Each structure stands twice: as C-alpha cells, then as structure tokens.
Amino acid sequence: MTEPLTFIVYASTAAEPFDHDRLVELLTESRTNNARDDITGMLVYRHPDFIQMLEGPDAAVRALLERIGRDPRHTDVRVLLDEQVTERTFSTWSMGYEPTPEGGDTDAAIDALQGPADARSTRESADALGGWFRDRAGAGRD
Question: What are 11's strand-pairing partners?
C-alpha cells in the first residue's frame, strides 16, 4: 500500500532578513534534502515572512515541519493548512521559488493566508498563490 501524501502550508517569520545569498543557500539545502525525502513544494519569501507549501509522504513532510520548527532561521512557525491529498500539485519542484516583492500581485493571497480564516478560504488562498506560482515559474522549474 502506498503511503498517503500530505499537503501542508505553513507560515513563519524570518529571525533575520534574508538577502539573495542566504536565500540561495536555503534553497540549495532544501532542494537537496527534499529530493532525498521525496518532498516537493514551493517557497515564498516576502520580508520578513516565509510561506511554504510542502507535499509528499506523510511521515517525511511531518519530520521536515518539525525540523523547520526547530530551525533558528524561523520564528512563529504556524501551520495554515494540513490535508491528505491523492496527487501532488508541485510534482516537478523539489523546492520551487519565485521572488515576491511587497506590492506585487501576490500580496492579496499572502495576506489572506497570514490572516485568520476558515479552512475553505485558506485553501482558496493557497490555491491562488500556487496558481500564480505555477504560471510565473513555468512547468518544471526547480
């Protein structure tokens, strides 16, 4: 039997600002680890906030989220959405990334994910942000 896939969206706050070099380092590390653990997803960073969508085998995603919670680069880690899914949304990205400057066209989805909401509106905001990301990044972009 195949292990269920888990889809988690979390938000956190950067303990310190991330410049380009620190983001590249974080992405390189994440892509290596995610490929090893069969985790796919995407990362959004808009200072000082991270939003990340992770998907993969349940045990691997939960172990990663636990490591993220202990990572000193993050504070205030909070799970926004936690679902079992039958297929991946970001199957070709070990960790996709696109810059999301404040004042850009992702602000509404990011702000909606950060604010209080019910599960349905959180899912809609996550889908909107994921759709923007897929459109911008293009299929297959890591």
Answer: 51, 78
What are the tokens at 132?
């923007």
Q: How far, in Å, are 60, 69, 89, 118, 127 from residue 134 at the CA level?
A: 23, 26, 9, 24, 10
Number of residues that this document lists for the chain = 142
Q: Which tens digit of pLDDT belongs to each residue from 99-124? A: 666 666 666 666 666 665 667 777 77
pLDDT digits (tens, 9 = 90+) for 3-55: 789 999 998 999 998 888 888 898 999 999 999 999 999 888 888 888 899 99
For residue 28, report the phi and psi dihedrals to the nearest 5 degrees: -60, -45
**What value, to the nearest 5°, has the Cα angle with vertex 78 and ends 40 and 115?**
105
